[in-house]
Amino acid sequence: MRDGAPEIAIDARMAGHSGIGVYIRNIVPRLARLRPHWRFTLLGVPDDLLPVFSGDNVSILPCRAAIYSLSEQWALARAARHADLFWAPHYNAPLLRRGPMLVTIHDVNHLALDHGWGIRRLYATVLLQALRRRASGLCFASRFSRSEFERLVGRFRQPFWLTPGAVGDAWRSARSPPRARSARDYVVAVGSVKPHKNLTGLLDAFALIAPRFDVDLVIVGRHDGLRDSDDTALARIAEQAGRVRLAGALPDAALIDIVAGARALVFPSLYEGFGLPPLEAMAVGCPTVVSAIAPLTETCGVASEYVDPRDPHDMARGIAAVLGDDTRAAELRRHGHDQVRAFDWSRTAATVAEAMETIMAPTSRDRRSMP
Question: Which InterPro entries match (predicted)?
């Protein structure tokens, strides 16, 4: 701490990713504005971070260690050795760190799912078990992610906070009609092509409704360079190229336009820690059809049509309920507009700042878990 100003080190290597990257990109600038007398050091690749993060109290320290690697343990601990607090926005926190450490848990899918992750699953197990004992405080993306942590990792005694995702300003300001719309109607799915995203189930459901509705299916999300890509889904997409299109990862503006122009967003995931795409769809007035799993019912409330993700027929029913009933679609748009108000990045950033202050306080070890 210099001149009474806390020095906060943040692992920002995933800032360019979807999911956790959205979390980092929205919270860090707000943290810097909320606590202008604090000093924030972002660890990552400067060329990736400089276009996104700036501010008199924000600096960047190069850190090129690969994510989920043993080298990141040493590199992060060394880079943050002089910081008053280290914030890991993902569970891959440096166990060699000596000093206060706040860790955000979005999900524990590497433990909950069986996709043959092998070494990565072992790495996740070791890290999460260690963090359960050694982290100074924990943030959870949802009540579900907290309950899953306790179920699969174990009970913990540190203070904890709920720090959910939210809808960014660009989504909130895009409620007007999109700049461009496909010549054909379509439904959209957003998510990387991984097995737990359940695109094979969605493709089965789409095949059931395709004869009844003159719509296409557009799938947006990363599909190349993944260690655990859903090869079955990729093959099926290629077979249905006439009605199914794989758009790949898109910049924010293009993603917003595609979602805003869709008849519905379908989110058929088998497992999530939070589930941001449905909320973003609600912000632009797109009706949502989502899996009836705990994290999504927690996030989406009454603003979605729920389906059984393991039953293509029920998924087809839910999609048809929106496409074939304008009244139901309008009802979901109305509820979605209200639901989005419950999630705000400024509130989440303020909670993260509160967590940091609590952990850095001299009496933090004596505090009980936060509700």
Answer: Glyco_trans_1
Is 270 within 8 Å of 309 (Cβ atoms)? yes
Question: Six-digit token pair at 279?
Answer: 């909320």
Strand duo 39-44 + 288-291: pairing: unpaired
pLDDT in tens, 29-52: 999 999 999 999 999 999 989 888
Domain range list for the chain: 7-166+344-366, 169-340
Domain 169-340 is of which CATH architecture?
3-Layer(aba) Sandwich (3.40)
Residue 50 Rama label (left phi>0; alpha psi -120 to 50; beta): alpha
pLDDT at 221: 86
Residues linked to residue 137 through DSSP beta bridges, in sequence order: 102
pLDDT at 2: 64
Among the four given CATH numbers 3.30.43.10, 3.60.60.20, 3.40.50.2000, 2.170.190.11, the one describing domain 7-166+344-366: 3.40.50.2000
Which parts of the chain are beta strand (E)?
7-11, 39-44, 58-62, 85-88, 101-105, 137-140, 160-162, 186-190, 216-220, 244-248, 264-267, 288-291, 305-307
Q: Could you give the CA distance from residue 341 to residue 75 in angstroms, rounded to a whole number?
A: 39
pLDDT tens digits, 162-203: 999 999 989 988 855 544 454 689 999 998 888 899 999 999
Please name which of 356, 349, 370 lies closest in space to residue 166, comparing C-alpha atoms.
Answer: 349
Residues of the chain under the 70 pLDDT cut:
1-3, 115-117, 175-183, 223-228, 363-371
